Inverse folding.
């Protein structure tokens, strides 16, 4: 099981609402919405575009490459029944921490309670 890794200060994320961070060899897109922080793998599962360059809209990030709309909490994209890897996040004393244990849903949220580790 991996440890929590410092990703950024929450104030840096609050200003722009999105931020790309690199932790080791993994690029992660961080998003700030309604006081919460979300982390998704930055490279889109569809065509490899950077989600950190996407648009936030109604709890989703819209991929700049082909407009897939990924749910910030689950990584699920309804119209294509696919899932972007998401990472566990915690915020303590103004610092955002990430665990490099990506999760990918194997079915729609609500219908599929289990998630698999992404390799």
């Amino acid at each position: 099981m991996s440890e929590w890794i410092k990703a950024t200060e929450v104030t840096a994320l609050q200003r722009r609402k999105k931020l790309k961070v690199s932790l080791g060899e993994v690029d992660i897109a961080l998003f700030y919405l309604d006081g919460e922080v979300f982390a998704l793998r930055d490279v889109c599962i569809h065509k490899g575009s950077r989600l950190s360059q996407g648009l936030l809209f109604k709890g989703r990030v819209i991929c700049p490459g082909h407009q897939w709309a990924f749910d910030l909490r689950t990584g699920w994209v309804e119209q294509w029944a696919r899932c972007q890897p998401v990472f566990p996040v915690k915020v303590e004393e103004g610092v955002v921490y990430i665990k490099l244990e990506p999760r990918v849903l194997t079915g729609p949220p609500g219908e599929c309670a289990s998630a698999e580790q992404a390799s």
The chain has a mean pLDDT of 88.
